[in-house]
Amino acid sequence: xxxxxxxxxxxxxxxxxxxxxxxxxxxxxxxxxxxxxxxxxxxxxxxxxxxxxxxxxxxxxxxxxxxxxxxxxxxxxxxxxxxxxxxxxxxxxxxxxxxxxxxxxxxxxxxxxxxxxxxxxxxxxxxxxxxxxxxxxxxxxxxxxxxxxxxxxxxxxxxxxxxxxxxxxxxxxxxxxxxxxxxxxxxxxxxxxxxxxxxxxxxxxxxxxxxxxxxxxxxxxxxxxxxxxxxxxxxxxxxxxxxxxxxxxxxxxxxxxxxxxxxxxxxxxxxxxxxxxxxxxxxxxxxxxxxxxxxxxxxxxxxxxxxxxxxxxxxxxxxxxxxxxxxxxxxxxxxxxxxxxxxxxxxxxxxxxxxxxxxxxxxxxxxxxxxx
Length: 372
Fold this sequence. Notes:
Blueprint: E1 9-12, H1 16-26, E2 32-35, H2 44-47, E3 51-52, H3 54-57, H4 63-86, E4 97-99, H5 104-115, E5 125-128, H6 129-135, E6 145-149, E7 153-154, H7 157-170, E8 174-176, E9 181-187, E10 190-196, E11 199-202, E12 205-208, H8 214-219, E13 227-238, E14 247-250, E15 253-257, E16 262-266, H9 280-293, E17 304-313, E18 319-322, E19 329-333, H10 339-355
Parallel strand pairs: 1-2, 1-12, 2-8, 4-14, 12-19
Antiparallel strand pairs: 3-7, 4-6, 5-6, 9-10, 10-11, 13-16, 13-17, 14-15, 15-16, 18-19
Helix pairs in contact: 1-7, 1-10, 4-7, 4-10
């Protein structure tokens, strides 16, 4: 990549994915500029519960699960490195996850998962009812048992974004807040930069990492990228000695005890367009589901509530790689509920693919070309 006034790479979007890519690129000496229309991490990233739970989305295996597990394993080394480079503790907590069945049919499926692989990629244990009560006294009486996953854990999502951003800046990246990208600069079938409300910015390469807004921006290039907003509402409850100490997970509800003394409960899954607001019904549903997992929560008043717009995709998988038909543009979007988990592996893989196009093979399954 040549020198000059323009950045080598411009990243559209300052969420956890954009900041992670900036961090890894800047670490290779690449001149990076991140353009964020609002505040860094101000959308889905900071609304997340921060779970690092690859088995929640892909328990049956395959490349997506492998990608999640690879990213999970990066956090062990990444957490202290980010603290050293940014001064931000991302609160990497090994709080483990309990997947709790409320019927024998569910329990049979989870028992099978625990024993299905002679060399499982993550440690898993089936807990019978009494073992579960000993480990997690707050659990509901209806729980048949639990699949205990001690290696899956959590971070503070807001702190993770801030750490990536601060460390990327320390490595030389430029972060421009309050800068909306309105279109792309093109020369033939090559993207040569972006247009913003403040003018044009040329770049050697552009990364589209604008979360739920990525589909809108890609449409300006004539590509129908099925990335769209999925609203998730959440609440924070005051934690105590009697509230859950472990992450408790079910498909429709999860509870995450945080380092700041709160218990995050979530989350709804709503196709509500770009309306980022909580609703009375959504919060009531979360409270009801939370109490069904831990009855002690029924009497607690929420300390806070919020909503975020997750970047869903047409097939539930992230969209990673060059945009078909265009040179100079890479997509990193559609992470849905897994942006926090997948941020380090996405940052590293996208950085490598920009520096060496032959490494795109690692992204093949997640390429935007699958939507042609």
